[in-house]
UniProtKB/TrEMBL annotation:
Organism: Remersonia thermophila
Enzyme Commission designation: 3.5.1.19
Protein name: nicotinamidase
Transmembrane segments: none
Pfam families tied to this protein: Isochorismatase
Annotated InterPro entries: Isochorismatase-like_dom, Isochorismatase-like_sf, Isochorismatase_Nicotinamidase
Length: 250
């Protein structure tokens, strides 16, 4: 392979307070520990393009368990749901579904039979809140572009490229076009969470025609117990999971 065929980009996914201990609303265990390594990657002069993403939800986002009344008439898809309180502000909150479970949502309000299953989460990364800010230790001075995703209230969006089902209601994030404008051939995906946004972004990168690496030490999973399986599934889709200590990769 000639040098002209290797133009890498670094994609730093969702390094935000809400995904980090000690106080993030959806803290990923050890999520803060990967910041020094990500800063080392950000400092590499051999990577010409560095992009960070932010999960950037409106308060009424579909992925928040607190936005799903228990009695919405839609079947839960996993486990049983029991009431959870939603907000301190309301003295009589309507019981809502619990976070960390899958639920059925209506994809198209004009056609309620169009449904899909998605995982519910605690309220996190609400636009303009402290929890949505990038962690201050991250060396953002090296980042040329910040991409916001998950901004449409009724669409969950793990991938930094575009929503699942390529929903026509939601505009593409512009990431693929940005990479192409820069002549990018290979992407290195790092950040949080390994089993959700990092994974979806890397898989979409392959679909978009890029060579995609996930740097294993530079990510952490919401569910570390499933990480080995997630890695296999990513690799089956053409993502290359690599180690910073491994052989030099191209
Ligand atoms: C993410 C769950 C919900 C992520 C975002 O960044 O991996 N996970 N929203
Ligand atoms: Zn989110």
């Amino acid at each position: 392979m000639t040098d002209s065929e290797f133009r890498p980009a670094l994609l730093v996914i969702d390094m935000q307070e809400d995904f980090c201990p000690p106080s993030g609303a959806l803290a990923v265990a050890s999520g803060r520990d990967i910041i020094p390594l990500i800063n080392r990657l950000l400092a590499l002069p051999t990577i010409p393009l560095k992009i960070a993403t932010k999960d950037w939800h409106p308060p009424n986002h579909v992925s928040f368990a607190a936005n799903h009344p228990l009695d919405d008439g839609l079947p839960p898809s996993s486990s049983s749901s029991s009431p959870s309180s939603s907000s301190d502000a309301n003295p009589h909150p309507k019981p809502t579904k619990r976070p960390f479970l899958d639920t059925t949502v209506i994809a198209n309000p004009r056609n309620p039979s169009e449904r899909y299953t998605t995982r519910l989460w605690p309220v996190h990364c609400v636009q303009h809140t402290p929890g949505a800010s990038l962690v201050p230790e991250l060396d953002v001075s090296r980042v040329q572009h910040v991409i916001e995703k998950g901004t449409s209230p009724d669409v969950e969006m793990y991938s930094a490229f575009c929503p699942p089902l390529r929903d026509p209601k939601v505009s593409d994030s512009g990431l693929a076009a940005l990479l192409r404008e820069n002549g990018t051939t290979h992407v290195y995906v790092v950040g949080l969470a390994g089993d959700y946004c990092v994974r979806s972004t890397a898989e979409d990168a392959v679909r978009e025609g890029f060579v995609a690496y996930v740097v294993e030490e530079a990510t952490k999973a919401v569910d570390p117990g499933l990480w080995e399986d997630v890695k296999k599934e990513m690799e089956e889709k053409g993502v290359r999971v690599v180690s910073v200590d491994g052989p030099e990769v191209r």
